[in-house]
Automatic annotation (TrEMBL):
One protein family per Pfam: PBP
Species annotation: Persicimonas caeni
Name of the molecule in the record: YbhB/YbcL family Raf kinase inhibitor-like protein
NCBIfam families, alphabetized: YbhB/YbcL family Raf kinase inhibitor-like protein
Alphabetical list of PANTHER family matching this protein: PEBP (PHOSPHATIDYLETHANOLAMINE-BINDING PROTEIN) FAMILY PROTEIN, UNCHARACTERIZED PROTEIN YBCL-RELATED
Length: 188
């Protein structure tokens, strides 16, 4: 079987991501049809994430900024997920109960932030807080989806720290708008 060169894989990933985004925008009925935007000062949509924010660097969370949610938004939730992981989607970060007067997260958000009102979920590394991209070496570029969800509820109640899949299940019924930015990362 012929080997596809890595640059061809990257082009296919970027095209697939753009196609998905265009298809989603064309059906803008997603969760109420409200448009939101999310961005980072550290990388552009469909570009490579700087090493600083990965397991090969300082492994700190990137700064994120998003637009205000639609009327009725009572809190925000941030997710970072890798759908290209060998065993299915890998959950890197979940931040929830973010107050509506906050539309950004600083670089290097510490794992324990409950003094600010927001909370963080347990990631698939079994730690609380952010753990950055760390795909298997020579696995080609992986996509990392950083998403913001606007929720119609101020607080999500859990008896203990939730995993990110638990967080998503609890939050999804309250979703009123969302946005995403995709970063790429690979390890040689």
């Amino acid at each position: 079987m012929p080997r596809i060169p890595p640059e061809a894989n990257l082009k296919m990933l970027v095209m697939e991501s753009r196609f998905t985004r265009v298809a989603r925008e064309a059906t803008t009925g997603r969760a109420g049809g409200e448009n939101m935007e999310i961005r980072s000062e550290s990388f552009d949509d469909n570009s490579f994430i700087p090493k600083r924010f990965t397991c090969d660097g300082e492994d700190v969370s990137p700064p994120l900024f998003w637009s205000q949610g639609p009327e009725g938004t009572r809190s925000y939730l941030i997710l970072c997920e890798d759908p290209d992981a060998p065993r299915g989607t890998f959950h890197h970060w979940g931040v929830y109960d973010i107050p509506t007067d906050q539309t950004s997260l600083m670089e290097g958000l510490p794992p324990r932030t409950e003094d600010d009102g927001l909370k963080q979920a347990e990631n698939d590394f079994n730690t609380i807080g952010y753990q950055g991209p760390c795909p298997p070496k020579q696995d080609g570029p992986h996509r990392y989806y950083f998403r913001v969800w606007a929720l119609k509820i101020a607080n999500l109640e859990f008896e203990s720290t939730p995993t990110i899949p638990e967080l998503k299940r609890m939050a999804r019924p309250h979703l009123c708008a969302e946005a995403e930015i995709v970063g790429l990362y690979n390890r040689e």
